[in-house]
Design brief:
120 residues; alpha+beta; two-stranded antiparallel sheet; two-stranded antiparallel ribbon; 4 strands; 16% strand
Length: 120
Amino acid sequence: MKARVLGRFLIGAVALGVVGSAGFEAGAQQAHVTFCHATGSRTNPYVVISPSVSGTFHGHYGQHERDIIPPFHYQGNTYSLNWDTGGRATFNNGCVPPKAPVPPQIKGIPPVVRPANFTG
């Protein structure tokens, strides 16, 4: 429940422009990093957490390869993890992987069936 509430806060904060798309306040000293921590669960693959910048770097960045960590600054360097199109989509969706679009089904057209010995 706590992760769900935090996720809703994160979505609201991003929508209001309080938090940048990278998960930290623009122009402010970054104390914490909000990111999607991988759980290993098939039904709830991520939870939203916000550890300190140091905790993110030492406890997640190099140790949890499935976490989705937006860009953050630590000791003069910028780091991120899995911050590709899919990672950003999951992060921006409250750490819930978006569902893949389902292709439309065309009704009334029978499937093409080819015999096993078909050569053409």
